[in-house]
Please model this.
Amino acid sequence: MYDNRVSGYLYIAPFLIGLATFTLFPFLASFLLSFSDYQLQDPVEQARFLGLGNYTQMAGDDTFHGSLGVTFLYVFITVPLKLAFALFIAFVLNFKLRGIGFFRTAYYVPSILGGSVAIAVLWRYVFAGDGLINQVLVWAGGEPLNWLGEPAYALFTVVLLRLWQFGSAMVVFLAGLQNIPTDLYEAATIDGAGKAHIFFTITLPLLTPVIFFNFIMQIVQAFQEFNGPYIITGGGPLKSTYLLPLMIYEEAFKYFNVGYAAALSWALFLIIALFTIIAFASAKYWVFYGNEREDGE
Amino acid sequence: MASKADIAEGATTDKSRGGGVAKGRVLLRGVTKCFGAVDVIKGVDLEIAPGELTVFVGPSGCGKSTLLRLVSGLELPTGGSIIIGDRDVTLVHPSERGIAMVFQSYALYPHMSVAENMGFGLKIAGLPKPLIKEKVAKAAEILQLTPLLDRKPRALSGGQRQRVAIGRCIVREPEVFLFDEPLSNLDAALRGQMRVEIARLHAKLGATMIYVTHDQVEAMTLATRIVVLNAGRIEQIGAPIELYRHPANLFVAGFIGSPAMNFMDGIVEAVETDGVSVRLNGATLRLPRHDAAVKPGAKVTVGIRPEHFRVGPTPTDMDHDQAVEFDAIIDLVERLGGETLAHLRMPSLSDGVLVVKISGDVPLRIGTGLRVGVRLAQCHLFDADGRAVGEPAARAVVAA
Model:
């Protein structure tokens, strides 16, 4: 019995060590540091306790306000677009066609690569002044655009990179679509519903648990986006792509203000938590769980 | 393609649909269906009269559900034509065929209330709300669903769900109701209850119904006529009792009746005008048959239903021409309460074990001997191709 317990803990030790080192410790440390003026180049002992100083600084920090605005804009644009796009592709890939397995794989591949640094670098070249996109534009008779130099276009390129990573949401949607019994579609067909009608009255309502799951995941991920703006635009031009995670990174590792960066991290954490709570609270009005029994039954 | 208004009108006044006398008739002409290289339905000709409750029955994979789906329009036939009422509906959209279907899984829309489920088709057809409400209320009353109209399907029992599925059909006022194994998901007690309800509903509505099942009790009790299917072909069509008493072939004989008919291999010894003598393992039976188309020496199969064996002395009003008795050894006993299934070895009839259904109060011990009798008129005879041989003399007795 005792031996079993020891070997059991040994088996899960790698996970526990990883969790403690890379999640719990930074989580607690950043919380403590957020109340200090700790500078990366100094020993920790020199850090002074500031109380809520970092948080009050945030309230008057225009860079933070700008970054927060861009982050909200980014989240509000990318989350609905990505969900709609992923659902659309999942819907198409749910048809019973010859070689559908190949297409499902082919459409999933970009999202495995999509979040990587390599693709972000590729993105920078594709949207560069003499990049592929501009070459195609010129070939088609259009004017080349300054994708990475114009604030509006720059945000667009970063948004587009996020949409390109639709795969994981798509796979979840696809599983959700395949979970809807064919009988329901057949019953609706006999009832005289057309394809669009069936989609909006049968498919979408039954898919709401999956939409909800993807919605939460996408909100959390979008608020944390770092690779795209860091590599493609560096947050510019004119801080038009200066998302909060990028600001946190620069505060900590460019300006060495780890205390302030930690406070910014906690602000981001609280914003994400708030949005998640709001989403969960709203769920009872629009998410339908088919197998859940009504009260009193 | 019918317009929305046409459909709405069809749903409102079914008199217009399908024409006059043939309303509710279903006609299948040379219907075939292939899925890729697999022939699932191999040429089916069938006429279902208005108001009939026809049951498609057969083993798994025989094509009975596919045939129903062809009638519904959820599948299109590879060849042949389908006529409902006076209209050829072979290529007509399911919603415009004048059919409604009850699915095995009920197929209720889980996010809609009972009333919304039942009124969904009418809403799509563009009927005014008060009319939908009226029709739903009427159907709910027939099915005793009125107190449940605001509930979601998840708050209903299996039987209630199936009634909602039937209600969804009733409001459409179809020419033909299609049932695809509707009771398979219910427990035995509920199944029996729902079977009676469907029979009552059929009597009340008088509508044409096609009912698919693999359960022969459902088939026997519900059907006006049974269509026995096997490997994509119709084996026999007839009233339930007709199929039971006069199976056209070995397949139907073995499929209809529970427990299944006992089969014994034999050789024809002699053929006379009113009888055929068949040599079995150790005995010769002289089966009364008129105009039997078999020759002496031909291989045949004799079939005896378990319930046609009798334990105890042969009634005195029967002579040796009418009944025979055999010695048997009891191999296994299954007591069902009211009756008992005895698995017997009867070397004079067969090398195998024969099942005999007898009264539950007969004392039986495994390994002991037993004497069982059978009326020769109740024995079935099949030729080497499995076809029933001759006009069974028992028919006259049964008809009387």
Observations:
- The mean pLDDT of chain A is 88.
- Chain A touches chain B at residues 181, 183-184, 186-193, 197, 201-202, 205-206, 288, 290-294, 297 (CB under 8 Å).
- Residues 31-110+166-286 of chain A form a domain with the MetI-like fold fold (CATH 1.10.3720.10).
